[in-house]
Amino acid sequence: MEKLELIRQNLIPINDALPTLLPxxxxxxxxxxxxxxxxxxxYPKLYADNFNATLRAEIADEPIxxxxxxxxxxxxHLRNISSGLKLRFLKKxxxxxxxxxxxxxLRRREAWVQPAMFDQELSGKKPLSNSEIVxxxxxxxxxxxxxxxxxTGTGRFxxxxxx
Length: 163
Description:
With 163 residues, the protein is α+β, with helices and mostly antiparallel strands. The chain contains three helices and five strands.
């Protein structure tokens, strides 16, 4: 099986689960922010972090077939049980491009400069264990849009001179 087809097959359960899980996580996140008196518009980073944490809890309650949450609760990362493919959920970057820059996070910097997936050979029991995809989400008026990317560079934050 070719790599692109294996990735597509791995992502089918994610694609099937998100239409249910995303709205549930949105409602729970907005409810929590309302209780705290922190409007989403005024606190966009808090909303993104709260949303990812809530979505993580939703996935823990309703696991996605073939995928396992990673141990760290400070992020939303999944690993495909059979292929080893890693998936990160991140909010769309509002400046350059869609994928947020790696910043100073060492694990993210390493993931953002991984070799292109199509340049790697499939081998072993978990042929995608060295591959990572970033699933970038955005939401407007309760409608979600998600796109999958493999970052090709560390990127840079708006206005910064380092990359």
